[in-house]
């Protein structure tokens, strides 16, 4: 093939201007041929860019890998509407004239393209609707020209090195604003107007402070609000409880304080499925009235077809969750995923029976609080539960026989730090004589190490921690865990240290 080199650069878009004939590679591809032949091929060994009549450009890398793509190769694509170059481990070189523009661009996806600055060639693309620049090394402030793109609906600048204040003026019709894992500071802008169309606001892992803006209540379409891992000091935002579509509320690792309670009689948070208030200074009883009204966590409808995820068009929502002290980023959020995470606060009193009504819960973490009295037998109805942590409280009595089944696999680690608890699956029997769990009595290879064993269950799988170290049984992980987690702790570890420090402080380590 002529016109290609190892750096994936062509000078004049030879096959884009309607001159000549399409390369033989595409003549053989009926599914591409039917769109017409305006196709750009950038090196058979480097990858392929499809620039079709429909104005759609996708880059797919081949082998050997491409080092970089020159922006000037797009000069001839003046009708281009969509660019998708994300996650190809390549660099986009933007050595073009300051006045260069692609006037018809509407959607640009440049995640993981090794960018260190904003692509200024987009400043004159006035019809831009989606701009995704996540997981690059872009530094500095958000430029003013982005804030002036009033047609912009999706703006994802997450996982970069951006600093400064979040601009007060944002595009009018934003549906998604994702600024997760940067270094923004100061207050969250207070001017969310009447009729605000935000559906996803993610500021997780920055240095935001002050109060949550009350004007967020104007965003009646809000589905996800994640301000975790910041320095926000406020009381619980009960004024959000009337938002009809709010499904995910994450306030973890901030300085929220006071009681968590509803201020009205009518149902609150009608669609909430994920609630994370961990590592704050909340106190008082667990929010029974809210729990009783979490309808979306009760008997979620399960379609037997393909799994469904939270998204806007092709843009998938993401979420950071904590499992056994490690932060993981869900790259996609299943519409049936539900969890409650209230650990590392100062909640007190008993665990309410009402939690047993949340039959669709996948995860429940109430650890490191001051909860007292017995574990309610009603928890035994949570048959979908994949992880449980009630550790480091002041619970007493026998673990109810009604729990049984998958609760037996949660083991000591889910209950430790409650000196008054006894019974299966704990190694402490209720007659005061400690005996190893029956599972290990039958396993000679474990018995020879002694029976001081910690079992941290996942419902189907088991974490086993011995005196000599620990082993992780991976084969039994739930399917949703395998399909959604990348198997590694979240890469934005610099954002998560505060939560771990809070855990250590409150654990006395």
Q: What does it look like?
A:
- The chain is mainly β and 509 residues long.
- Helix content is 10%, strand content 24%.
- It contains nine helices and 34 strands.
- The strands form seven sheets. The chain has a 14-stranded mixed sheet, with no helix packed on it.
- The longest helix has 15 residues, at 493-507.
- Mean pLDDT is 74; it is low at 1-65, 433-477, 479-489 and 491-509.
Write down the Rg: 26 Å
Q: Please tally the helical runs, counting DSSP H or I stretches of 4 or more residues.
A: 9
Number of strands: 34
**Biggest sheet, spatial arrangement of strands:** 1-2-4-6-7-9-11-13-15-17-19-25-27-29
What is the helical fraction, as a range of percent? under 10%
The rough form would be described as elongated
Give the helix/strand class: mainly beta
Low-confidence residue ranges:
1-65, 433-477, 479-489, 491-509
The main pleated sheet reads as: 14 strands, mixed
Average the pLDDT over all residues and give the rounded result: 74
Our estimate of the beta-strand percent is 15-25%
Spatial gap, N to C terminus: 64 Å
Question: Which key terms come to mind for this protein?
Answer:
single chain; 509 residues; mainly beta; 14-stranded mixed β-sheet; six-stranded parallel β-sheet; 24% strand; disordered N terminus; disordered C terminus
